[in-house]
Structure formats: structure tokens, C-alpha cells
Amino acid sequence: MKKIAIIGGGIIGLTLANYLDTTKFDVTLFDEGIGQATGASAGIISPWLSKRRNKKWYQLAKDGAAFFPKLVQDLSLDASVYSKCGTILLREQNSLLALAELAEERKKEAPEIGDIRLLTADETASYLPLLKPAPSLYVSGGGRLNGRSYLAHATKQALAKGVKIIHEKAQVDADNEQWQIQSASHQITVDAVALTSGPFVKPLLEHLNYTVDIRPQKGQLLAFDTTYQTSQEWPVAMLDGEADLIPFMNGQILIGATHENDGGWDLTPTQAAFDQLVEGTRDFLANPEALISQPASFFVGTRAYTSDFAPFFGPLEQTNLVVASGLGSSGLTTGPYIGYLLATYFNEGTWQADCYQKPIETYVQKNAEN
Ligand SMILES: Cc1cc2nc3c(=O)[nH]c(=O)nc-3n(C[C@H](O)[C@H](O)[C@H](O)COP(=O)(O)OP(=O)(O)OC[C@H]3O[C@@H](n4cnc5c(N)ncnc54)[C@H](O)[C@@H]3O)c2cc1C
């Protein structure tokens, strides 16, 4: 039986672990858990109205969102993990019409966008009572994924399939046609390795003599524990500006997230982020003080970005070395699908995902041997 090691147990690594054929492969996943983006994420799955012009990225994000019904079924995800709750977009009145037209246009190739409705001010507040009445656009296909619950659930499922999970930092070294994986208390030799370690693919690949175009970006968000009884029935609100409002089960309301390029690898929660997120939300709320006075905690994680903000994933020139990183702010949307595509590569031996990205050498190059 061939052995595969996965380095990094965020949304890509754990989805990959779940889709690998464990009757064919002996799978070990290493996850340090530090800096993880998936555990700190906001949870918005609603890529269709993005202003990004990168067509390959949009194709990936659209197909990533369309993949969710299969993911829900294959991994038996319940509403505490994923819910198709709908998305409300708040914009200036004159932008809403153009946005609705864009939504109708995109729906032709993405029927999963669902119903598209311009809401009156009162309808907006009745859909999501935390919001001040204001006109908005509603799309019923938007979803929310609880990154923390997904990790817990996918870990349980992977263990049940026989995947070994080791909560330690791993180092990878080439060993002829194989790979040596070393952590604090384990050393194993494997036939193939998948680096799904977010921005930490950089040191791992540099150690293997590659140059990598990736940088870390700090993201912080606020989680308020409230006594709202029906929060799980509310849609996600994408506000005009950087902050979004994501209602979860049991009254948990997230406000996120910051994008701090100069924060790099730092994981310290800051008062400046609290103030920025609260100020970015205040004008949209019916009663800001009622929410902001609730007990709050921070989620802080490190996103991975490339120079052109596009992800890269797939086999490198050594076909038994697979890498996936650079998912940026949309990795909950694209990550499960990327994990599935990587698993298909191992299970079936074919790679058919180049349509979603520039050649992987754009981001990862092997250095000349000295
Ligand atoms: C605040 C915030 C909000 C976000 N909101 C959204 C959103 O609403 N919608 C959306 O689509 N996306 C969102 N994202 C983006 C999304 O969360 C990420 O793009 C995605 O989770 C990245 O997943 P990943 O599996 O590539 O990496 P990660 O989740 O970062 O996982 C990588 C794992 O590898 C581990 N690791 C690293 N090095 C090693 C090593 N040497 N050995 C062992 N383990 C190692 C790390 O500890 C980590 O656990 C958000 C991100 C942040 C930070």
C-alpha cells in the first residue's frame, strides 16, 4: 500500500484526507494548528458578485461554491457546519440595480446563485433584524460554513476512515524517490507528500530548494456571544466596506475581517482591529450598542497570498510532491474543491485542474542545484 503524508490540516488538508481512497493509501496528516486560517475564518460562501477580474479565479470560486451540495452529502455535514442561509448585500441604492443585473448575468452559468431579489428597506430588516432598514440585494444560494466545526467534523470522519492525525509540526526531506517526514515524535518515509500548510508552504518548499511566491497576511475577526434565539435562520450580510456580519447558531454573531499585510505572521488580537471592525459595522446596525456590549472574543489567523492574489495547487515537477496554497480571502469557498481535486489526482492518477490557474511554475520554481 502506498503511503501519503499531508502537511497541514486546514480546510484543504482535511478535505483531501477525507476524499483519499484509504483502501489504496496509508495516509498520515500532520498539523501544527498554529496560525491556521480555517479556524479563524468568517464563513462566507458567496463568490458570484465579487469585483475581481481574474476569470480563472472566478471559475474556481464559482465551481467551488457549486461543489458544496456534494461536500455536504459526502461528509454528512449538518446545519451546525454548513447552511445555505442566503446572502444580503448592502450597497448604495444606485449600485444595487447594477449588482442585480450582474447577478442575473452570472446566474446563467451559476444556477446555484438561486433567487435574486432587490429588498426594500423594511424587507432587509425583516430578513436580518440586526440591520437598520436599508435597501439591499438578496441571493438565496449564499451559504455560511463554520470553519471551526468543519475542522472538528472532518477530523472525526478522517480518523474513522483510518487516516492517522499527528498534531505536530513536520519537516519534509527528499529521499531518492521518496520523502522523509520528521516531527517531534515521529519519523516516517512516504511515497508522496501534499503540502497544504497555508503560507507555511514557503519554509517547507524553501527547505526542498524551491522559491515560492507567497506572503502571510494577518486576519482578525470578532465573535459576539449573544442571546438571540433565531440567529441560525438569518442570512449573512456583506456590508459596503471591509466588515461583514455573519450570524451563526446559538446566538454567535461574527464581524470580520481585517486584512493586515503588515501584520504578517503575528497572531496577537489588537484593540485597533476591534475598533476598525466595530466602526465598519456600526452604521449598518439597528442597535449597535446592543450587539457590541455582548461578550466578545477574537479569532486571528494567517492567510496566504501570492503576488497576483491567485491560488496555486497541484503536482510540481516531482509528481509525487503536491502543493496547494495562496487561497487568500476566499479559501473556505475554494478550499474544499481544491482538496477534492488533489484527492482525485492521487486516486485516479490524472490532473485536470489547470484551467483554474496559471502554470504552477508562476508561483513555485525549483532552484538550480549548486
Ligand atoms: C479572519 C479570516 C476570515 C476569513 N473569512 C473567509 C470567508 O468568509 N470566506 C472564505 O471563503 N474564506 C475566508 N477566509 C480565508 C480562508 O479561511 C483560507 O483561505 C483557508 O482557510 C485556507 O485554508 P488552508 O487549508 O490553505 O490553510 P490553513 O487553514 O491556514 O491550514 C494550514 C495548516 O497547516 C498547519 N501547518 C503549517 N505548517 C506546518 C508544518 N510544518 N507542519 C504541520 N502543520 C503545519 C498550520 O498550523 C495550519 O493548521 C478567511 C481567513 C481569515 C484569516
Automatic annotation (TrEMBL):
Range of residues in the leader sequence: none
Keyword flag Membrane: no
Origin: domain of life: Bacteria
Required cofactor(s): FAD
TM annotation in the entry: none
Record-annotated FAD dependent oxidoreductase domain positions: 3-343
Alphabetized InterPro entries for the sequence: FAD-dep_OxRdtase, FAD/NAD-bd_sf
Gene3D superfamilies linked: D-Amino Acid Oxidase, subunit A, domain 2, FAD/NAD(P)-binding domain
Keyword Lyase: no
UniProt KW keywords: Flavoprotein, Oxidoreductase
Family named by the database record: Belongs to the DadA oxidoreductase family.
Protein name as annotated: Oxidoreductase
